[in-house]
Write a structure and sequence with these properties.
Blueprint lengths: L6 E8 L2 E8 L5 H7 L2 H7 L8 E6 L4 E6 L20 H6 L4
Antiparallel strand pairs: 1-2, 2-4, 3-4
């Protein structure tokens, strides 16, 4: 199953750091997200894009996980020539992960 089938996502950025939230559509699916979508799996999924650490935070009251991806935006908005400088497309890429 792909993550987009049970969750939605939003991104944010600060410098060279990307922040990606993963929110379960249905609260009953939050435990599955918590079990399957680890920081290690997200780091592996973004291999070649994320050069730094990936840290996961859990927000069980809103059935969400928040991932902070360090060294993820090619130097940051003002320093990168990438097409998606803010990393907004990273949420779609995360939702394409198979669990």
């Amino acid at each position: 199953m792909k993550l987009w089938e049970i969750a939605h996502s939003r991104t944010g950025d600060k410098g060279n750091i990307s922040n990606i939230s993963l929110i379960a559509y249905d609260p009953k699916d939050f435990d599955l997200l918590r079990e399957k979508v680890t920081a290690e799996r997200v780091k592996a999924h973004f291999a070649g894009i994320v050069k730094g650490n990936v840290v996961r935070y859990e927000l069980p009251n809103i059935q969400a996980l928040n991932f902070v991806l360090y060294d993820a935006l090619g130097g940051g908005v003002t320093r990168s020539l990438s097409l998606d400088m803010h990393g907004k497309g990273l949420s779609s890429y995360l939702l394409d992960m198979e669990i």
